[in-house]
Amino acid sequence: MRPVAVNPASLPKPSGYSHGTLAGTTLYLGGQTALDADMKIVPGGIVEQFRQAFGNVLATLREAGGVPEDLVSITIYLTDIPDYQAHGKEIGKVWRELAGPVYPAMAGIGCTALWQPEALIEILGVAVIPEERLVQQ
């Protein structure tokens, strides 16, 4: 089976990339920043950017038939680790609101910049979706 692009209509139309790539039952979730439908980074700091970026990841996951429990790995790139740590409780609350008590393998990585200069966070991941729930693209 060839890999298939997964691009939810609710996310900005990709150009030169896919929001996700489904290979068998494994969904590779492309890096998501806090872009809204108007292709603008949401205002409000790290907590609101986390909400939008993680929501974008989950939108791609759901488009393929997945649910948060299918996540096996999440990588979070941050331009300001101390800012993220200072808001950890709020970010944890947003995570539980969006995904419930699901905690896959995770890594947080500091970086000097992301694709959009105003982006503070980028999230990517991997999910394994049971075959009976897969949505054929």
Overall geometry: globular
Measured between the Cα atoms of the first and last residue, the distance is: 12 Å
Q: Please indicate the percent range of residues in DSSP E strands (runs of 2 or more).
A: 25-35%
Low-pLDDT parts are none
SSE string: EEEHEHHEE
- Total of DSSP H or I helical runs spanning 4+ residues: 3
pLDDT averaged residue by residue: 96
Structural class: alpha+beta
Which terms would index this structure?
alpha+beta; 3 helices; 137 residues; globular; single chain; 6 strands
Task: Write up what this structure looks like.
By secondary structure, this protein is α+β, with helices and mostly antiparallel strands. The chain has helices at 46-63, 81-86, 88-99, and strands spanning 4-6, 20-23, 26-32, 71-78, 105-110, 121-128. The protein has a six-stranded mixed beta sheet, covered by helices on one side. Strand 2 and strand 3 form a beta hairpin. Helix 1 (46-63) runs parallel beside helix 3 (88-99). The chain is globular, with a radius of gyration of 14 Å. The two termini are 12 Å apart. The mean pLDDT is 96.
